[in-house]
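User: Hi! Is it possible to get a structure for several chains at once, not just one? Here's what I have:
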Amino acid sequence: MARPVATAGSGYRIDRRQERSFTAALAVAHRVVARHRLACVGAAICLGVVIAVLTGPSLDRNPPDAVHVSALLLPPSPAWWLGTDDLGRDILSRLLAGGRISLGVGLAATVAAAVVGVPAGLVSGFWRGWVDGALMRLMDLLFSIPTMVLAIAIVGVLGPSLTNATLAIAVVAMPQFARLVRGQVLALREEEFIQAAWAVGAQPLRILRRHLLPNLLGLIVVQGTLTVSFAILTEATLSFLGLGVQPPTSSWGSMLRYGYPFLDQSPWAAVVPGAAIMLTVLGLNLLGDGIRDVLDPHLRA
Amino acid sequence: MARFLLHRMLVAVPVLLFLSIGIFSMLHLAPGDPVTTMLSEDLASPDVAQTLRHRLGLDRPLYVQYGLWLGHALRGDLGYSYRSKSRVAAEVLARLPVTIELTLLAMGVAVLTALPLGALAALRRNTGVDAAISTAAALGLAMPGFWLGVLLILLFAVRLHWLPPSGYVPPWQGMGANLRLMILPCATLAVSYAAVVLRISRMSVLDVVKADYIRTAHAKGIGEARVVLRHVIRSALIPVITVAALGTGRLLGGAVVTETIFALPGIGRLAVDSVLDRDFPVLQAVTLFMALALIAANFLADVLYAWADPRIRYG
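Assistant: Yes, the chains can be modeled jointly so their relative placement is included. Here is the combined structure:
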């Protein structure tokens, strides 16, 4: 599984009028909707999944862990919309509840990765020097281990659990944030508007906050979107291998793990959570790619 | 060129050294005592545990342990597995052929399908063909490897009974049986990698097609097929090689999952088992080995650049 890459481009600059308002974000959103059909599909998928996962468990009166001994491995029917698993648990209820875990881990790991990676990239690119050298060598080291293997090694050290899996995903995703932000800062600091800010005597922190950060937001949003999808996929993989969430809690990945041995009797318990993962990841990828295309017309492929 | 490659090789040495220090200290500072895991509950009197800890050298300072480990590792001795008590190096070597066969087959299949498809999508851009190929790539990218494996088993093994669901036969015991068992795992592993290669080859060909020298080639009256084969594809290869090399990590990570689903006794399966058993010497060896493989792949990519683009001369 490769780390997601939001291409650092230079096609879009936030000018001073838009700098401090939501209009910039709205303008981007409008352009995504107007120009990019696939991104809309992606946004619709994401919205649907989020609404289902947020509201579903509270609308659903059947507890996801309730065992129905008389209803083992049933196919979908009016009573069980997506069938039941080997313990007679309702797959739909479990899917909605497990989605909270999957999406939660995806968001938490991404936020953690960004919170460490973005400042690291800013500092590296802005002040250069030995900090830059040291940080980038560290990132190179992290890059030299395949992501999945690194995540497994980290979980191996800390012990399999949901928290540790989240941590591992954050560590694996972090270098990409740092590298992208650093690269963009290196490009931006040579631009005239930054040079002009220096010339009028702006303080470094002000330049960072007022001039650099607004121009990095697009990149961070795109990378963030793609990282959520990467994190959901990685969490599912770890949980499928038994290295993520531990029973009785379940996520989409662990549902697949426990449904998989009963494939020949009833495929639903394994097929349904996999479809949920794929749909969510697809939605996020389409959305992320769409925003990138709109922000950076040069890179439209 | 030779100097550049030598330089690249030498640069890999400190990376591996730091990596081994990092992994070594991570694993040895980890919570959870391997000694207690190795001894069953009733046997674990403090005396026995202490003796074992001493025998394994776990009571020495960390840097001494690392020095000893490195000294042995350089001589090909990676220590003993906590679980099976056998040599780690032997265990890794025994499982290596499975992973190598799986990844190389998957890589070959993926590149041979993705490269032409990507080029085709680019040459027929904004048509139905392009849309179909690009959609397939997006789906392949979002497809979790383990889910694809499950679906393939469901269709070809459970429903159609065309192929065995899982298992492994070494090629020297029967090439046919070996390949039959490898079809599904290879397909599973190839898809996500192929999706990445396909996207980049489409993008790359789109870029090249616009270049002046392609127009020149057309203007000289060279036939379409020859332009595509001789000029477009070859120039478009550079980004494809980069991504294919970077994708080796994806492939190795995917091998972990694929080997687990299809019960293949490879390195990836070994990694997962070593985590579940807290078998640190094995986990350490496997992690380092995977890193080494990734570094080697990137090294190979550097060599291939020069072949694909004659303007690149390392000096």
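The mean pLDDT of chain B is 81. Residues 12 and 220 of chain B are 46 Å apart (CA to CA).

User: Great, thank you!
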